[in-house]
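Batch job 17 of 40 flagged for manual review because the log was empty.
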Amino acid sequence: MREAQTTVKKIRWAVFLPPWLLLIALLVLNLTNYDTFILVMDKITKWILTNFSWLFNSVTFIAVAVIVISYITPIKNVRFGGSKCRPMMKYTNYIWIILCTILAAGILLWACAEPMYHLYAPPVNVAGGPGSGDAVVWAMQTVLLEWTFSPMAIYALPALLFAFVFYNMKQKFAISSMLAPTIGTKRAEKITPVVDSVCLFALCAGMAASLGSGVLLLGGGLESLSGGGIQSSAGVWLVCGIVIIVAFVVSAASGVMNGIRILSTVNSRIYMIMGAFVFLAGPTAYLLDFMVESAGLFLNDFLKLSLWTSTSYGDGWSQNWPTFYWCCMLAWMPVSAVFIGRMSKGYSVKETIEVIFFFPSVFSFIWLVIFSGTAINFELAGYGVNEAMVNSGTAAATYAVFERLPLQIIMIPLFLLIVFVSFVTAADSNTNAMSGLCTEGLTVDDTESPVILKIVWGLTIGALCIIMLVAFDVEGLKKLSNLGGFPSAFLMIFCIVGWIKIMRNPKKYDLNKMDYEEDGRPIKSERLLEENYDPDKKSFLEKIFGKRSKTGEKD
């Protein structure tokens, strides 16, 4: 009988209760003494960013370098779960799920808004000053730095490590398992409750803050669509929040292969339609020139941008933007890596890097060039994108762009739909991962946690978001989630060291010894068909070009 059928799943109370109770306690503190809470959080966050910018920038850049090296060295042929392991899902589903999980709705909110900040408030080293051509270049380089290769590496490297230790080393389904190659399995198991609890706490706060941003984005969209008839107010936020919460809790409870797979596939189609429309209806020739120029400037200055801390100029600009982003993303990294690593079953290291690192980076680059480029073009043409953002908040920049394009009566609702589905997909995936970390008894054959845990975490995150948003704002939760990036930066160091050790001798750690040559080099293997593959259910391309064989290739 299979292990998945005999293993009893139990709630890991030592992992679940501490972060859950702490979040409830901090919510009470926010409601009773909000000003003091924000003051303390401000001081702690400023101290971290001021004293550890070098750490955040360094580990992020090193992660990018290690990912690129992994893609071209023999480790690329290692298959998670072994050469006989079948993937959980089709390659295309795998791409869409990871894409929606990593990018979520962040680029929807910031693609048009962030360039406005950098255009009119650049650092002192931008010679031309605010509104200049130099400021335009700086704005685009910064946006690309924060949303392409660097953040993808933050998620990709720990995901590779978790997939290897869980599927190939048969370690427990826990964040601390990623420490096993560095400190040993026994030591890693001893600190599991502490590591998992800290990471769960940081992610839960971050998700609540992110959900708050999504609610504000939806509220602003409804206001724009109604011409001011529906005000983005507490009542609208409450309704939007409840709808999102119900959607992602139901989706998470239905399981990864149902909820997330369907949502991510739908979302990917809408992304493509939206991007193509803005590209064709917007300043197309300008965007093509802008794309080529942006790619050259960004790649040429990538090393300098990645390690720049603005220390020489003393204006602290880097701490407020890229370094702040690395801190936030590192807070999300541990739990996201667990989910992404879990999805990588049956795929090789090379395939996984393509899906987690290269494809999202390229997609994000194209999306940012289209939307950020259009926003910059419209602003320089005097269409008031920045003015709309100053008057009505960050989300208004995106709607100011749509209002200058044709078919806004169609495209704004479509944009609202993509915002909604993006947040539901991201919340769904992370809720699944959080629930998995609170479950004892998950195996490589069965990684679905009990539904009750998904419901509890989903309702907790939703309640935190709505109460904070209606009573005050989400700034407290944002600062709280940023604190999680500090310990996660040190965890990232262990992940880098652990993955490098595995890269040097994967056979030493892999239980699938038959997948290696005598000298330890991984043997290249073909990807098998996904689990529960139905030969009678063919995709459009399969119907045209032929049926796939047992290895996943067409006949």
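Reviewer: the log was empty due to a logging misconfiguration, but the result itself is present. The mean pLDDT is 85. Unflagging and moving on to job 18.
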